[in-house]
Every structure is written in C-alpha cells, then in structure tokens.
Amino acid sequence: MAWDTWLEDYYKLYQKFLYSPETKDNLIAFYNLCQEVRASKNKLMFAGNGASASIASHAAVDFTKQGKTRAVDFNEPNLITCLSNDFGFENFMAKAVEFYAEDGDVLVLISVSGNSKNAVNAAKYAKSRGMKVVTFTGSAPDNQLRALGDINFWLGSRAYNVVEGLHMVWLTTVVDMLVGQAEYAVA
C-alpha cells in the first residue's frame, strides 16, 4: 500500500469539509442558541447511536463543564434498554426526550446517515413540542434528520470516521466559543 498517497487523500477529506461559509454560519448560530439555553437555565439534550452516542456523551460533558451550558445525553444502558423494551428501539430517543425535556430545551442529534429511525423519531417529537433541533449528519444531503433540523451540520461523505471526527471537531469548537478561547484550564 502506498501510504503517503492514501494518507494525503484521506486528510484531504477533512480539509474539504472542515470549514466553509455554511459551517461558520452554523457554528455561530449554534453558539447563539447555546447562549440562549444557558441564559434561560434550560439544557441541551444529546443523542446518537454507536460512535455517535459516544460523541453525544463527550459533548454533554464538555458543554456542561467547560461551556457552562447544562447538557445531558441518553446513553445510560438502563434507560436505553428500558425504553427500547417498552416502546421499541426506534422510539427510545423520542421517549427519552418526552420524559426529560422542558420547554426551551434543545435537542442535538448526531447520525452519520441521518436516517436512523430513533433519531428521526426523536426530532419529529421535539419539533411537535416546539423545541429547536440541531443535527450533525453526513451521507446524502436529503437525509431525514437534516430535513427536521433548525441548525444542520452536514458533510457529503460516507466516510464514517471522517464524518464522526468532524462532528466532534464542530461540537468542541462551539464549546471553545462558549469559553471564549481555545486554550484554558479545565480544572
């Protein structure tokens, strides 16, 4: 394998999608929304499947601790299995939002495909409650989740690790915007 060429092509994917005028606008819009959430003492609710669930957990901690914006995620195994058992896996995120949401909260959903039924159902439920929905997706531009979002971070790639990596970069960028700097003590 010619690793030099492979690695150069691989990182060109990151460079292609990392930052654009649309991304800048979304980062600022999400920052402003987080400021509103923080000022009103509401919360961000994060959810995703698989690696996106891990990103959701990481984001919830960083937004809470560094960003001083209350945040939760729905990755507790007892919660997932309880709600999935009683309402079906495709409804567990929507039910979690139903049980945990308060007026003024914001739902942040992370899905590479943008077509995960549980994430789409959660977005539909949140919209029916008048909640704002922020989406982080990849793949096709017409994915279902993106169509339901108020702020949509999207990159047209099916390279899962690249999409997930950029989702994490964009989320932590907003945390650092809330802090007001890139380097700071976290203790």
From TrEMBL:
UniProt xrefs under Pfam families: SIS_2
InterPro entries: SIS_dom, SIS_dom_sf, SIS_GmhA/DiaA_subfam
Domain of life according to the entry: Bacteria
GO MF annotation, one: carbohydrate derivative binding
Domain SIS: 33-184
Biological process according to GO: carbohydrate derivative metabolic process
Protein known as: SIS domain-containing protein
Source species: Rhodovarius crocodyli
